């Protein structure tokens, strides 16, 4: 009886091991688990929610009709599933059996799970009031210098500032290009001038972006012990960590670029319609 039970147990273990090996060998399964454990889907959901919240914040700057059109465009373009699929496609294209398996192994660790939980929570819409309050507080009462130093190192290793600059750049380019395309031919900017406008916009946003990123990093990891911050930074600074950061950043930027291009096209159509309506009204008055 004991031998049969032992044999059955061994067979179950072997079957489980074989199944695990088969799953690990499936690139799609590995990528999906990486995206799941890294909080990618939740962060996309928060991006969508935050984009809708940003529209609400801009209500006083837009006319009711423009507000409605812009909101409808944002809802059509920034949807969780298309963004997730774009993210998955890029990760799948960058799949490396050895590196991806190693990243997955790290994401399963308690430290990685803790860091992801903090990152997802900090970016949620409901955390925004607390984040704003914290950003104001650290102006007069910043964390100790030693704490700031290790978090600055983490910020540098995660390349979060570069990531945000790239995100702003692709969104800015899409929107500015759309408005330029909708302008009358005689008022359209040539490519060189258009690039200058986009560059100036990036430069103007730069100081605010740096301040915002710093506050977000300090806020996100405020409850993470120094030892854990250092361990997380060491992973990000490793060859494997640098590879993962690059792939993840490129995937997110690519997904947002696709969505921003669609948004730009919709905004261009809205602007063209507005110009047509304005001309029609002028004709009626004559």
UniProtKB/TrEMBL annotation:
Domain of life of the source: Bacteria
Keywords, sorted A to Z: Signal
Signal peptide start and end residues: 1-20
Name of protein: DUF2059 domain-containing protein
Organism: Hyalangium rubrum
């Amino acid at each position: 009886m004991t031998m049969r039970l032992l044999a059955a147990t061994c067979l179950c273990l072997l079957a489980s091991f074989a199944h695990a090996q088969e799953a690990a060998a499936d690139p799609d399964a590995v990528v999906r688990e990486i995206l799941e454990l890294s909080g990618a889907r939740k962060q996309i959901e928060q991006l969508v929610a935050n984009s809708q919240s940003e529209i609400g914040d801009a209500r006083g700057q837009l006319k009711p009709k423009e507000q409605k059109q812009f909101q409808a465009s944002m809802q059509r373009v920034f949807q969780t599933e298309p963004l997730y699929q774009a993210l998955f496609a890029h990760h799948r294209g960058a799949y490396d059996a050895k590196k991806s398996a190693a990243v997955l192994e790290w994401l399963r660790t308690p430290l990685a799970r803790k860091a992801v939980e903090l990152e997802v929570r900090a970016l949620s819409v409901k955390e925004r009031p607390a984040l704003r309050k914290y950003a104001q507080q650290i102006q007069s009462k910043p964390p100790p210098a030693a704490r700031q130093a290790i978090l600055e190192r983490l910020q540098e290793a995660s390349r979060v500032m570069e990531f945000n600059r790239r995100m702003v750049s692709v969104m800015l380019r899409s929107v500015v290009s759309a408005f330029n395309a909708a302008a009358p031919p005689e008022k359209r900017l040539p490519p060189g001038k258009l690039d200058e406008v986009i560059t100036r916009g990036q430069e103007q946003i730069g100081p605010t972006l740096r301040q915002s990123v710093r506050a977000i990093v300090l806020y996100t990891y405020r409850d993470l012990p120094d030892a854990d911050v250092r361990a997380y930074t060491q992973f990000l600074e490793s060859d494997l960590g640098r590879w993962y950061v690059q792939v993840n950043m490129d995937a997110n930027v690519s997904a947002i670029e696709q969505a921003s291009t669609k948004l730009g096209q919709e905004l261009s159509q809205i602007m063209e319609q507005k110009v047509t309506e304005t001309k029609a009204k002028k004709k009626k008055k004559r």
